[in-house]
Amino acid sequence: MASGKGLNATGEFFRRRDEWRRHPMVGNQLRHATPGLGIAIVAFGIYLVGEAAYNKLYRPSGDHHH
């Protein structure tokens, strides 16, 4: 019976130690620190794809300068 109580106390000890991992500031800290970063990355990706398509369609084939 003492070993069961010791195991329960150990489980409770680790449960209390891991409570900080479920805190809202830990999981979403980067998202709250950089609002709009995801939208900016998507917009920049669309810009890069559009620029590559434009260069492929409208740049003369003899022009190899970057």
How is the secondary structure organized here?
Blueprint lengths: L1 H16 L6 H4 L1 H5 L3 H22 L8
Strand content: under 5%
Gyration radius from CA atoms, angstroms: 27 Å
Number of helices: 4
Shape: rod-shaped
- Biggest β-sheet, characterized? none
pLDDT < 50 stretches: 1-6
Which oligomeric state applies?
Answer: single chain
Total strand segments: 0
Span from first to last CA?
A: 77 Å
Question: Which structural class matches the secondary elements?
Answer: mainly alpha
Helical content class: over 70%
Mean pLDDT: 75
> What is the H-and-E element order?
HHHH
Task: Note down, in words, how this protein is organized.
The chain is mainly α. It has helices at 2-17, 24-27, 29-33, 37-58. It starts with a helix and ends in an 8-residue tail after the last helix. The model is unreliable at 1-6 (pLDDT under 50). Keywords: Electron transport, Membrane, Mitochondrion, Mitochondrion inner membrane, Respiratory chain, Transmembrane, Transmembrane helix, Transport.
What is this entry, summarized?
The protein has 66 residues and is an all-alpha fold. The chain has four helices and no strands. The termini are far apart.
Defining key terms:
single chain; 66 residues; mainly alpha; rod-shaped; disordered N terminus; mitochondrion
